[in-house]
Amino acid sequence: MISKSLKTTLIFSIVLFASCKEETTKTPKTAMSNNVLIQEWTGPYEGVPSFDKISIDAIKPAVEEAMQLHLAEIEIIANNTEPATFENTIVAMESAGKALDRVFTYYGIMGSNMSTPEFREIQSELAPKLSDFRSEISQNENLFQRIKTVYNASQKTPLEPQAQRVVDLIYKQFEMNGANLDADKKKRYAAINKELSSLYTDFSNNVLHDEENYITFLDENQLGGLSPGFIKSAANIAKEKGKEGKYAITNTRSSMDPFLTYSTERELRKQVWGNYYSRGDNGDEYDNNKIIAEILKLRKERVGLMGYKNFAEWRLQNRMAKTPENAMDLMMAVWPAATARVKEEVADMQSVANELGDNITIEPWDYRYYAEKVRKKKYDLDSDEVKQYLQLDKLTEAMFYVAGELFNYNFTPVAEGSVPVFHGDVKVWEVSDKTTGKNIGLWYLDPYARQGKRSGAWATTYRSSDSFEGDKNVLASNNSNFVKPAPGEAVLVSWDDATTFFHEFGHALHFFSADVKYPTLNGGVRDYTEFQSQLLERWLSTDQVINNYLVHYKTGKPMPAALVEKIKKASTFNQGFGTTEYLASALVDMKLHLADPTDIDIDKFERETLDALGMPKELPMRHRTPQFGHVFAGEGYATAYYGYMWADVLTSDASEAFREAKDGFYDKEVAKKLVEFLFAPRNAMEPAEAYRKFRGRDAKIEALMKDRGFPIAKSNN
Q: Domains in the chain, start-ordered, CATH in brackets?
């Protein structure tokens, strides 16, 4: 998942994707501000964020000051008396907003990695102010008329490709955000955005509250089935929470998933499962159902002002899918095969449970537990045995190896203390070109779960690359929620977690390899930008990685060939579960935004929609609606969660290109095309065109169905 960056989240998607560029004499100076969060970055590597100087007290005034500086820059552009040109309008906009970029680097860290109740209060206070700020830009009539003048001129006399692309993107985003509305509708549009901004903040804070406060503490006699490493970590977490002698199962996926997979305590599995899938849905002051209903009403009203029938129609017009119907066609082409596979998986699990004399009927809190037993029976594959070879440190080395082979990058640890970090767990590496030694940037890794850190895994940038004001290096980070081990213990992760680790690193490589001229082009099309990171997952199972980096955490010996063969044979195991839980979330997301939100009952809608789809009762959606932050903590993935599957069609098809190549996944010619057409262009090229340049044709769904072990389905995609 790509973290919501400053400009995508807080300046309505593409306007002003500026990153820390040199100030021009035509914009207000910011370097002399007394607020350290606004000041230009100094130090090594072309300047780095002063993460060691973050303070809650400085955040609010810094945001407010940076917004005013940015609005002053916009006024200069909008009121320029010279005729509108690409240089004095579009380029000037691209150059604006540096101070706000810097401030929101810190703001993003505090919101995602280091949140506190005090910071959440500030978020709530700032949300409506930020909405007003965005509206002042998107509804600035003079600014839009200048953009429109440049856009119209470019339709007659096209600019060079990247310049034309940035003009088209900026004009389209202003248009999609109501720039052509009359005064009364603009006023209502701005008011809706202001309401939504507060609701998004409330939604995410409610989920975080439930993650922090629903913790299951175990006694020593309740640890059956759990691995020694997991037990030590649980004991350490309980001690940190003032419960020495107990064992803590936190309300996050990284803690919940292994507990449900291995714990022999069925009632405790039910409790932990219930805590996790009830986040935001506990009928208390932190319940999100009414918030979601209000969000849906406001979204529909807002796009209705511009003549759209529903939010999905508005959102998908500039995505690869183009229409909700196309997205639904893809999902429904896969759904029957996925749910049919679930029935087979449940039958296998029930059979094992019966053989063991457990006298139970498979329930959602049993799925992972008995699936693991089926895996052991069918493939003689024990996930806990596999974990012994999946050390976080060695996986990190493996990712560096892949980046070196495909991108020619070298990763060198930065000396502790030479670059400021926001927490002691964060480590930093310098990224450089292996051939020339040129600095590409810095990679920050924040691997562990902790109080105040949002769940999941994501990638983000602190500084992106563009060249219109001179080349700059990239500062990027990966953020995970692995359970921190007891002192001296190795961090062992599941195969799924290792895959996610590679996935998020794929986003980082996308950031580092960007070769674009203008900041706006560092954005992306949501149902395409997950493709590159999903593709990088495939390198985890290559022989070079398995043989050299998947070594036993105690003996250092490589993973045995027999175990490797078992993993490969089991590659399509449990695909019914994985595909169905994901698709259920994507389908509910789309259907919620196509439905009439008047008097909508969210829990009832979720239940009835899943029933109509034939959702197997033995598993839940991956993200139940009341905790679906992708969709309701902001708008990045709203009606766009399907994009992971759209991107996976591309991923499976692109993987075939490597399998067909002379040297497989490390073939230099295919790797060169991978970087040139799929990673470097970012949003400087239409995604469909970029993919055709790589593959020589459009992607086909058949490779996806084959990868998942499903019967081949035909689709219009």
A: 6-138+140-177 (1.10.1370.40), 214-277 (no CATH)
